[in-house]
Amino acid sequence: MKRIGRFIWRILSFPFRMVYRGVRKLIRGIIATPMAIIRSPVKTYRGIVRARNWLLAKVEYLQGESAKWKTTFSIIKSPYSLLRSFGLSPQMAASFLLAGSAVGGGVVVNETILAERSFSNRDPGVYAASVIGQNAPLDIPTEYVEGSNTLRIDLGSTPVREIVIENVSVGTVFTGSALPQGEQNVVQVSGNTIGGGTNTRLEIGHLIFEKSRCKKLELTDIQAHTIIVKGNASDGQSIAPSPGTSRMRAIGGGHQQADAMVTSGGTYDRIWIQAPTSGVNGKVGTLRLTNLYTKGGLCVLSKMNVGTMEILLNEVGEGNGFATKEFTVATTVTGANITIEDNVEVTIAEPATT
Question: Distance from CA of residue 229 to its chain's centroid?
Fold first, then answer.
């Protein structure tokens, strides 16, 4: 054991001994300088330069080695991030870690996954915007239930400048996926009816729902200043918004608002954006949901006050004919300015599971 200890000490102390020797040589050269200058100024200068260059070379070498060790330890510490960087989905990365570990699943999740989970990294979980700090959205989930694959955002009194969710697969559209027990909506963006409390709504400056695939797309109880429903194709549709007097709307918050929450790519069993606290409306400057590829449930937009709402270029249907209306804009959706253009009924079935 003493030999091993001495060996480890020699390895660890090697960089310091090298630096010490270099500094000692430099000091000796400086001490010897007065006499050497008298004897040979050029020779003295060259000696000092050699000592300087030797010391700088060792410092550069140690800096390079330090960076390499730092990268190595980061990779060892974060296997989940490493797997995600190879393009694996969160579920597949987690399965590799669980399969290759000798400890329990809960320990692996706590030590590797939860520490690295974030909204920007396409991870499911509950993201509570109501506790967001100045200028920084809560990128780390406040809650994560092992086995759950729901992406949920709880909005509150802190306005969020922008939320963008794009290029995702939701519901039962990918192999092995399923909706949470008792749920019918794969995408739900709404306020809440709260029993025994005050109902909530989402206040949104600009809502964009576009280029998405849904079994059913339902819009109800929305008050907007400007409504644009354009270029949607559906397997049966009923588009019947009512005239309204809602004002133009923008959501601000100055320095106190949360910055953008953006995620692109990923697979979820459900996307849920809500205002869960009694009497506290959720506030978002711009909410953009684009290229959501869904199967197995409904896409629902409800209980909102919106400045401008755009429903663009979506495909909706489950292949059961035009008699049933898969794309509906209810009469409870009101707008001061309404544009409905180039929406067509065509046969559209749900996508296959991949």
Answer: 28
Q: Structural domain boundaries of the chain?
A: 2-77, 123-345
Do the Cβ atoms of 280 and 207 come closer than 8 Å?
no
What angle, 0 to 180 degrees and rounded to 10, lies between the N-to-C axes of helices 2-31 and 41-77? 150
pLDDT in tens, 311-327: 999 999 998 989 999 99
Read off φ and ψ for residue 97, nearest 5 degrees.
-65, -40
Provide φ and ψ at 42, rounded to 5°. -65, -45
**Distance separating the N- and C-terminal Cα atoms of the chain:** 57
Please tell me the distance from the alpha carbon of residue 117 to that of residue 94, in angstroms, as a whole number. Answer: 11
For residues 224 and 247, the answer to whether their CB atoms sit within 8 Å is no
Q: What is the pLDDT of residues 196-240, one digit of tens each?
A: 999 999 999 999 999 999 999 999 999 999 999 999 999 999 999
Whole-angstrom distance, CA of residue 232 vs CA of residue 259: 31
The residues near 115 (Cβ < 8 Å, ≥ 6 apart) are 78
What is the model's pTM?
0.67
Pairwise CA distance, residues 280 & 202, whole Å: 9
User: For residue 147, how many other CB atoms are within 10 A of its CB?
Assistant: 9
Distance of CA 312 to CAs 8, 207, 292, Å?
A: 66, 11, 12
Which two three-digit tokens encode residue 25? Answer: 């040589």
Nearest to 336 by CA among 262, 249, 213, 244: 244
